[in-house]
Structure formats: structure tokens, C-alpha cells
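Support case: user asked for a sample of complex input and structure output to validate their parser. Sending the pair below.
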Amino acid sequence: MSKKQTYSIGELAREFDVTTRTIRFYEDQNLVNPARRGQTRVYSPADRVTLKLILRGKRLGFSLAESRELIQMYQPSGDNRNQLLALQDKIQQRREQLNQQLRDIQALQQELDDADQRCEDALTALEKPDHV
Amino acid sequence: MSKKQTYSIGELAREFDVTTRTIRFYEDQNLVNPARRGQTRVYSPADRVTLKLILRGKRLGFSLAESRELIQMYQPSGDNRNQLLALQDKIQQRREQLNQQLRDIQALQQELDDADQRCEDALTALEKPDHV
DNA sequence: CGCATACTTTACGTTAACGTAAACTTCCCC
DNA sequence: GGGGAAGTTTACGTTAACGTAAAGTATGCG
């Protein structure tokens, strides 16, 4: 009982809440390459994972080129020493960027908390306009 | 001895590693509004903070419109009840988005660690091509 | 004074990431 | 067999966020 799972473009579009145009565009950019049954595209689980990675990248503000790079990082492509070292270098750079993003998020969270608190204060001040 | 600190556009551009064009563009978008001494723009510490917030937003993948919204959140603008509630709602939405980004970052960090480990393995495998 | 440096305005150009429209094929269903 | 739903190709349009170039002004300096 093999998995044999495949997906139509519409299914994936619904699942990830994007348009079919978007998915075809990603194919145009060589980010995903579905099989064909006649004219119709047939997507594999691997394609689906790739889509997921792209959309996660988007949520983090990555360009498609950056996401492509990241995806390729997961397949070391049996390289030579220099390529492996270069890859590690890129990985390290990404790590540092992610750490920066972490710091940014924490700072922003703190500020949102403060802003929320000010709202709260303003609201309670509205309920008792004076000192009562 | 008042602070009286001001900045030229070039100073800010150098500090934040952006072009002066970029800073003028932000002014065009009403994100920052420097004073003028004659023709020349004179930036205040507040302008500088705004710039910082915009660039932090960019690192998190925010559009300028989103960063503008965030910046405005920090100045509740003595509103009425409904506006305050709407603001709290937006704050909450941002919080959820930030939490999603946190999860995305953690997943990505794990994958980078794995990829790095595979590089490491491939490199040591290169040093001893056989089992020695 | 002449020149460099830093500023200014105006305006057209560019890139990424799709949107949108038109015109077609395929398949299923009653 | 006439439609409707989902798929396809082709191609031009759009928006954000600046880049880039031209042409002018102000200021210090050797």
C-alpha cells in the first residue's frame, strides 16, 4: 500500500490559500516542477513541501530567491569540499539573520505589550472620567 | 545643557546604511517629517527613532504601510472607546503574527542545524574516503 | 575665485511577485 | 449534447520600494 498521494493545483491553492496563478508562477521560477497527466499538472508530496517552505519564507520576509537558496541547502548535492564550506558559510549567515529577527520580534512584542497597556489605561480612564 | 541633537540626511544614511534617496522616499510617504533650515532637511531624534522602527520592520518583512501602522500604535492619539478597542484588536493580530514568525524561525533554525550537520558529515567523509 | 562636497528637486526607470483577462481544452453530469 | 467546473496557455497590467540621472543651490577651503 504505497502512499501514491498526489494533488491538483486547485487542491494546493485551497490548502495554502494562494491562487493557482501563484503556484504556476513558482513553477515558472523553477521552484516547483509538477508532473503532467496530459496537460494537467500533478503535484507530488515533495512539491507540496516545497510550497510550504516558500510560504514560510514569505512570512519571514524572504524573497523567492532566498527561499530557493534555503531549499537547496537541504539537498547538499554531493559536493566538493569548497562548495560544502561555502554552504556552511551561508547557513551561518542565515542563522545570524534569524537571530536578528528574533531580537526584533522580542523588542516589538515588548512594545506591543506597552501599547496595549496604554490602551487599557485609556479605557479605564474613560469609564471613570474623574477620580470618582 | 539641552540635548539639541539633530542629524543631516547623510549622517542618518550612513548610520543606517541606506541611501539618502530612501530617506527622502520615506518622507514622501509621510513616515518621517524633518524640519528645514533653508532648503536643507534637519532630522530630530524622533525622526531617527522612526527610521529605526521602519528598518526593523523591514527586517521582519513588513511593508512600509504596516510599519506606519505599528508606529502609529505607539501614539494612541487620545481616542474614543471604539478606536481604542480597534487598536487593541490590531495589536492582538500583530501579536499572533509575531508568534507565527517565532514558530517559523524556530523550525528554520532546526533545519539549518540539520543541514549544517550534514555538511559536517560530508566533510569528514571527504577526509577519510574509506573506513581507514 | 574655483572647486569639491553635500545638499536639493524633478522625473523617468526598474524589479519582484504576482493580478487579470482572453481564449482554449477536458471531463463530468443530467 | 449542452453546460459548468477545473484545468491550460499567452500576454499585458499593477504595486511597492526604491534606483538612477540630470540639473541646480549652498558652503567651506586653499
